[in-house]
Amino acid sequence: MLRMDWQRSVGLLVALLSVVAVGWPYTESLADYNLNTNASANAPIDYWGEWPDHDYHPSPDNWRFPMYTIFLDRIANGDPTNDNINGTTFEHVIDSNQMRHGGDLVGLIDSLDYIKGMGFKAIYFAGTYLMNLPWAYDGYSPVDTTLLDMHHGTLEDWRTTITEIHKRDMYVIVDNTLATLSNLIGFKGHLNDSADFLATEYEVEWITDRQYVDFQFSNEYNETCTYPKFWNETGYPITTGGVQDLKGCYNSDFDQYGELEAFGNFPDWKRQLTKFASVQDRLREWHEPVRNVITRHACIQIASLDVDGFRFDKAVQGTLEPLADIISTYRECAKKYGKHNFFLPGEITSGNTFGSLYLGRGRQPDQVPDSVDVAIKLTNDSDSEYFLRDDGLQALDSAAFHYTIYRSMTRFLGMDGNLVAGFDLPTDFIEAWNGMLETNDFLNAFTGELDPRHMFGVSNQDNFRWPAIKNGTVKYLLGLYIVTLELPGIPLVLWGEEQAMYVFDATASNYLFGRQPMTYQTAWWTHGCFSLNTSKFYDFPNDKGLDGCNDITVTYDQRNPAHPLRNIMKRMFEIREQYPVANDGLYLETLSQLTHNVYLPGSETTPTVTGLWSVLRTYYPGVQQNATQSNGTLWLVYQNGNTTATYGTSCTNQTAALLAPFDSGKTLKNLFYPYDELTLEDGPGGSGAYGCARNLTLDPWEYRAYVEAASFVDPRPTITDFVPGHDARLISPADTGESLAIQLGFSQPMDCDGLTQAISVNSTTTTGITASFDTANVTCANITARTTSNHFVGEVPTVWTWSATLQNVYHGVHQLTVNNITSVAGTHTNAVDKFLFRLGTETNPLISPLANYSTTLLHQSDNGSYYIHHDAAGADQFRYSTSFGSSWSPWTAYTGGNTTIDLTAWSGTSAQKWKGTHVRVQYFSRLTGSSDYLQEGDAGWKEGVARRFPHMWWNGPYNQYGYDAGLDSRMRFDADDLRWKYDFVYEWPSVGQISIWGTDEDGTPDTTGVYGDVDNSSVVQRLPPSYLSSNVINITELPPFPHLGWTISLNDANLRYELIPVGSGWAQLVLYVLLWVVPLLMALAGVVIFIRTFYRVQLNTDGNVAKDDKLPLLVWRRLRGQSSDESSERALSAAAAAAA
């Protein structure tokens, strides 16, 4: 059956894995994606692969530089042919933000200049690049440990990409899930409910036909097993509380102790033994044979791909001593390939006390030095009393995204709620840093040198984006300042933070995150109004996040080189380069803290400390060799209040003075625009003490960084503005070639002629003509400094412009590249900046997301064939479907004009067939990095009526989700208001789903096109198959009286639905009364008819004719009042007596 191609494809995928399982360890058909090249391997431990004839990229000496976090799927799509490479309908789903977007390695290469141009020196690939379930875009559920995810590209594509990254002097950090895999194993008797922790373990089974290739479970029980050592969150070993019940175990590669949810308070040792969040099977990494396979396969990744580090997901859910053994093995492997500083950070979500066990050689609370001064001078030759493990068994290098600092950051920036973990550091950043110096082993496992490398971020892929909330963008910038310039370590930025991206992807109230792609899409726009009440924060101040579905710029390309946040971020990173103390200084001291406590309603007795901090950052005296170098002092001053305030009103009062780490009389200069200067006065201690800044006024959430004015280094120039605007969509009715005014803005005067020569244009047009500049009429000018209307703190201004006319601009997509230009002062931008704009008609889907249906798209020729009339200038490729997306033609080069199409023969049920001919065309644009452009059309359908689905059914418990075919569940299409409708009268509350294909030939409900509203946003979408049962529309409210039910009314153009009251309670009441009254009336009528018939007299003894009686005799008498015929009466009496 045509519409079930996806099922056959899933079957092929299952069969593929089964073939690998039977014919492992090497299958020729997967050679392009297989890290294992040892065709003669007899077991997984024998796998091997290397990058042939390759010079491996050495590790950096210092990892303290900015890193950019990406989900590869969410960056850019460079090759649409791998979007649905598994052949299912659950991969690249354009109208869903819960499945793949299509990002791949080709698209990432196209975006590397954008990433490099911000000042990043490393890219952290969040989620593994290993084979995952078809819809698993995040990569955290691998089904194999040596096969690559085919959606991203081949092994050669990976090598090409990593080479391009290394060419740009950047490094590659990839995710490593340690011991967690996919969701293929279920606990017997608990496939449909939770399997609580069981110390004696469960028997297990494969959930489906899909199985792991290299690891197997067993239900053969060993009465005794050698368990690893466990620690409590207090930082000490634990032997009670259930640990003592761990004696035997199954002879399995997997832990079979049950499952725990992702959120909740559970002992750490239980988390280390259970299936994560009920969806990730856990390998028994504490069993040496399993551990050896894990490390072997990870070493293949180093050897085959030349990666520079692993970031360990859920690191503290690995058992401690086995994890240290694993990581030490990775270090030895990396050394073989010239990587003598291979980076190995890990995710630590616990408090600092427990996390300290995992850092370096580990440190229990009873091993903490007496002071910071003692701790910072420790070496690997120091007394072993300060370390948990021997040298050579170091575990994590650092925390990857420091959750302790993140929790403190949320409170510092005004969030409310229970924002702490047990046994953690103080919320004050300076106190927290000094606490880390004491409790964390910061010695580099390779060099033995003091080398703090915690990765600090304001958000990450598992947390909300700050611009979504009230005042969130300015709060984010203050947070970025803290993690970039105050805390010694690695600034970690999530993709899109530099563009103030804010849309939520979350579908649950306790898990808020935003993972919007960088390139064009419509799903995040369609589903951009997030209204779930979160349980994570008290009174969550959602603001822009409520309204993303009404902001069309959400669909724009998010790689804008001139975005003001991007330029502020660049400046912060530049400060770290220009002033090395901002990168490597390890000494922090609070000089002044002019604050007060604010008690928020959801935080009970925990205050939010609010006000100003004055902080010294410098090299640690007596420890860092460069402590005496010039520019070795950085003064950081900032406030987290929500109002403008003046601080330092007195320089004689110690409690009111704003102290600075420079002598009185020194002139200081702010490193952020407007680069203000101030001169210090004597502080409260008089001459020789710290200087004092008087009456410093700071805006809400303002930050500054001061150095001596004589040591100030001018910032590099940067591009600050582009007219007509990055990814502007310009409407043009005719494709005749136009002239367009272009303007570029810069932060410094530039070399006008050099800039003109450095700009190039790339055009994707149907005509094939590339636009060009009229270089004879270029205008360059100094202007009064201006910033955007946002007026962000430290926003880089435009002070100089370059203007020219772009000629021969035809319909399509155009890219302007500005290549590393030079200022008048001779300073380079050190960036390759690329801007986009589009030109075309309103009906071009590449111009407007509203052009997703066209009445002129599909036509029928005189000979009966059908053809597409394209209007998609700017596209590179296209494909089409005549079965509403159930099957597709191959991707084809786009040339415009008309395309004759082949209609797919129908083989579904009669109920699934539709009237007329429908076509769905999908377009791909390389310059915009997206294949999310759709346009649909019809022929032989209602004239001028748009439809995007063939039919719909409303299914739910009331009809057993479609299994009860006796109830009519088909929705009707209202051609007048273009909505699908179904009148639903049932018990309340209730739930339901919208099914596109209804029931298959065998009576089974089809699951390929099921829509629900899991986040209660009044917009439906599809979810992966594993979430099918939860993807429902919840109808919790009773219809208002006198209505009895709801009409589900869906707009298929934007997937929004309404619940419209339907049915009349008064009519129901009348019917109810009639059902009582009518039977009584009918009964009385029946009695009357019976009596009349029974007493009807036919005997006549006197020959007189009697009139027909209408009622029984007695009643008739009473009505008449007298007898009208005594003779007849006597005759009747006689007849009655005779009968008796």
Automatic annotation (TrEMBL):
Residues annotated as transmembrane: 1069-1091
SMART domains reported in the protein's UniProt record: Aamy
Signal peptide location: 1-23
SUPFAM superfamilies: (Trans)glycosidases (SSF51445)
Entry keyword annotation includes Transport: no
Domain of life: Eukaryota
Keywords, ordered alphabetically: Hydrolase, Membrane, Signal, Transmembrane, Transmembrane helix
InterPro entries (alphabetical): GH, GH13_cat_dom, Mok11-13/Ags1-like_CBM, Mok11-13/Ags1-like_GH, Mok11-13/Ags1-like_Ig, Mok11-13/Ags1-like_Ig_2, Mok11-14/Ags1-like
GO CC, any one term: fungal-type cell wall
GO molecular function: alpha-1,3-glucan synthase activity; hydrolase activity
GO biological process: one example: fungal-type cell wall (1->3)-alpha-glucan biosynthetic process
Keyword tRNA-binding among UniProt keywords: no
Annotated Pfam families: Alpha-amylase, CBM_Mok13, GH_Mok13, Ig_2_Mok13, Ig_Mok13
Glycosyl hydrolase family 13 catalytic domain mapped to chain residues: 69-536
PANTHER family documented for this protein: ALPHA-1,3-GLUCAN SYNTHASE, CELL WALL ALPHA-1,3-GLUCAN SYNTHASE AGS1-RELATED
Name of this protein: Glycoside hydrolase family 13 protein
Organism, scientific name: Aspergillus carbonarius (strain ITEM 5010)
